[in-house]
Amino acid sequence: MSDVGMGAVRGAIGAMAMTGMRTFTADVGLLRETPPQSLAKKRRPTGVLSYVPKSRRRAAVELVHWSVGIAGGAIFGAVPHELRRASWFGPLYGLGILMSYDFGVAPLLGLKQSKRPKPAEQAALIADHLLYGFVLAGLKERARD
Fold first, then answer.
1. 87: which DSSP letter?
2. DSSP-assigned letter for residue 138
3. Counting Cβ atoms within 10 Å, is residue 6 exposed (0-12), middle (13-18) or buried (19+)?
4. Can you spell out the DSSP letters for 30-64?
5. Tens digit of each residue's pLDDT (9 = 90 or more) over 79-111
6. d(CA 46, CA 39)
7. What are the residues whose beta carbons fall under 8 Å from the beta carbon of 80, sequence distance 6 or more?
8. pLDDT > 70 fraction of the chain, expressed in percent and rounded
9. Does position 17 have pLDDT exceeding 90, yes or no?
């Protein structure tokens, strides 16, 4: 499989792992709501989401999140191998995606996450994006090298 294809697969797995971590952190009270939940609960969704019945919106938003994870993974796979092998690059890449959401997507969509989150919420979001980056980096592959 190509590096881009493997990156896309790891991106899907990483995004799904993030879903699990976010469910946990929300259930223990570290997050008021996850970014996908914030999108799903938006009163007047725009674009394609406006055609999704409210009862299916959360699932649709989760599919969008996984799709973003796949695209982010494919882009990661296109980065030069030498950079991807650096132990710090995967987690840094994951944090870069969080920053693009915090400073780009959330403010543009007027989501709660565009306001300053509580330190515990920010820590939980940082942790799940670090997890995504570690999954992309493929620690098993690095150990073989």
1. T
2. T
3. middle
4. S-SS-HHHHHHH-SS--GGGGGS-HHHHHHHHHHH
5. 999 999 998 999 999 999 999 988 887 777 776
6. 10
7. none
8. 81
9. yes
